Amino acid sequence: MKIKRIEHVGVVVKDTEASRRLWEDCFGIPLGGVEENGIRKLALYYIGESMVELIAGKEPDGKHQRMVAEGKGGLNHICFEVEDIDEALAELKSKGIPLLDPVPRIGHAGAKIAFIDPKATENCLIELAELPAGHH
Predict the structure, then answer these.
(1) pLDDT per residue over 89-131, tens digit each?
(2) For residues 65, 70, 71 and 77, what is the CA-based torsion angle, rounded to 10 degrees?
């Protein structure tokens, strides 16, 4: 498996709009973009070759809002960009590493993503992402 870089670090927040004040006004990092779907909203901050992804749930009883309410917000996962996600997953499976996503699914920016089961990584949630051609 070829890991190219840390693609992003995911941080669960209560509200991306409120959190933007810290990232933009305090740290001076310009907003790189926003994405949302039916269950979550992202605010993306590019820092060098990597990014911080602020994640807020849109449903009051959804997974992300429950995490914040239970005091489990904050640093959530690290995402490695891989050259070939299918090859990476096959390699992990051959090594007996349990996966939350045995088959890639579509994530931010149309990337093919999959998560490794944190039981195999000392409780660190790790995402793998293969970005679409031409995206960086």
Answers:
(1) 999 999 999 999 999 999 988 999 999 999 999 999 999 999 9
(2) -60
